[in-house]
Amino acid sequence: MQTECYQESFGFQSVGRREVVGRFDGGAISSDGGGLLLRQVDQRLRLLERFAACFRDHRNAEAIEFTAQELVTQRVMALALGYEDLNDHDELRLDPLLAVLAGRQDPSGQDRVREQDRGKALAGKSTLNRLELSTPEQAGAERYKRIAVESEEVDRLLVDVFLEAHAHAPEWITIDLDATDDPIHGEQEGRFFHGYYRTYCYLPLYIFCGEHLLGARLRASNIDAAAGTEAELERIVAQIRQRWPQVKIVIRADSGFCREAIMAWCEAHEAIYYVLGLARNKRLEQALTPALVEARGLYEQTQKAARVFHEFGYRTRKTWSRTRRVIGKAEVMALGNNPRFIVTNLPVEQQPGQELYEQVYCARGDMENRIKEQQLALFADRTSTATLRANQLRLYFSSIAYTLMLGLRRLGLAGTEMARAQCHTIRLKLLKIGAQVHVTVRKVWVSFSSAYPYMPMFAWIYHHLAGAP
C-alpha cells in the first residue's frame, strides 16, 4: 500500500565499512538507452515514416501537438522496447529518451502548450487510443478519432521492406504460411470458441519468407485455417513478381493448408510450387506399408530410428481435381510407427523425395519461432480492444515493431554472436541500457554506464549502421 512517507535517501545493508545509500537524485534517467540503435536502423529503412504515411490524418494541422508520425513511432518504439500496454504511455510520456526516438523537437517537453503538460514530451494513452478507434469511413467527420489506417498500404509496405532487403533478385524464394491461436478474454468482435485450441480466440494468418514478415491478417476463429489464403498469396506474389518477374516461388505449409483451392491456384501460375503437409489416412498408410515394413527391419537391426521414403501418385475420392505427387516418410522408432506425408507439384527430377521432405519441408519449423517471437516478445497477442479492425491495427503495430527489430538484426548484428538472437535477447542485452539524459539548447547528451558489458558490440553495431550504404 502506498504511504504518505517520502524519504530523500534509503539506507541498505552496508558493504564492509561503507554504508550503502540510495537516492532518487540522478536526474532524467532512462532504462532504454539502446533504443538509439533502433532509431539508427529506422534512419536506414525509413520504416516508421512510411508506416505513418499509411494513416490518413484529418486533424487541423495548426491545432495539434503530435503528428501522426510521432504517434505511431512512439507506439512502435515502445513495443520494441518491451512496453506492451497503452497504459504504460502515461508514465513513458515523461521519458526524454523515448521522446528522442519518437522525433520530438523538444525531448524535455517544455514546449507543450498547456501548463499541466509541461515536462511530458509524449502523448498519453488516451491520445494514442484514438488511433485504434478511428475508421477510414468516419474519420473525416469525427471530432476526436480522426487518424485512420489504410490497411492495404500497410500490407504493401511489409512486402516492400522484404524486397528492398535484397540487392539482387533471388532465383528461388520460399513463402511460409501458418495460422495460430490468439486467445481473447473479453467480448471482442469476432470472438468464437475454437475446439482444437479449447478456448475463445482469434486465428491470425501469418506469411513469412525466411525471417521477413510478408503479411499478418487477424481473423475470427470460426473458419478453416486456410481461409483467405489464396487472396493473400495473390496480392503478395503479384507485388513480388512486379520487382522480380523471373523468381521461382515455393509455397510451404502444414496439412492445415493442404486444400484444393490453394494447390490449384499454384498450379495455375507459372513457376509457383507448393510443398504441403498431407494429413494421413488409411489409403495413404496402405500405400506406405511396404516402406514401413522395410523401416521396421532396419530398426530391429540397429535399434535406432529408421526412415524409408516412398513416393507415389495420389488423388482423393472427392476433393482433389487431379492426381498429385505424394512423398511418404515411413519412420519406425522406439515408440512405434510414425508415418508422415507431403504433397507437391515440384517435379521429381528437380527435387528427390527424401531431400524435399528433410531439407525443404522440415525447415518450415523455423517459421513457428518467428511467430512466437512476434507474439511473446512483441505482443502481437494483445488484442483486447472491442473491434476486429482495431485489433488488426494492434497486429500491424506489432508487425512493424518486428520488422524494425529484424532490421537491427540484419543490418547491425550481422557477423556478431547475436546475429541469430531473438527479439527478447536483443532487447535485454542491447536495448535495455540505463542512461542519463541531459537536454541542452544544442544537444541531447545520453550518458551510458562505463561498466556496460556489451560496450564493444554496441560500438561495432553503431559504426556498422552509420557507415553502411
Please outline the helices and strands:
Blueprint: E1 9-15, E2 18-23, E3 29-30, H1 35-45, H2 47-52, E4 55-57, H3 68-80, H4 89-92, H5 96-101, H6 125-133, E5 147-149, H7 151-164, E6 172-179, E7 182-183, E8 192-194, E9 199-202, E10 205-209, E11 212-217, H8 229-243, E12 248-253, H9 260-267, E13 272-277, H10 282-287, H11 289-302, E14 306-314, E15 324-333, E16 336-337, E17 340-344, H12 353-361, H13 365-377, H14 388-412, H15 423-431, E18 435-439, E19 444-448, H16 455-467
Parallel strand pairs: 6-12, 12-13
Antiparallel strand pairs: 1-2, 3-18, 4-5, 6-10, 7-9, 8-9, 10-11, 13-17, 14-15, 15-16, 15-17, 18-19
* Major sheet details: 9 strands, mixed
Oligomer: single chain
Kindly state the percentage of residues in helix.
25-40%
Low-confidence runs of at least 5 consecutive residues: none
| Overall SS class | alpha+beta
User: How many domain units?
Assistant: 2
Shape: globular
Contiguous helical run count: 16
- Average predicted local confidence, pLDDT: 94
User: Rg to the nearest angstrom?
Assistant: 26 Å
Task: Report the strand count.
Answer: 19
The portion of residues forming beta strands comes to 15-25%
How far is it from the N-terminal to the C-terminal residue, by CA?
54 Å
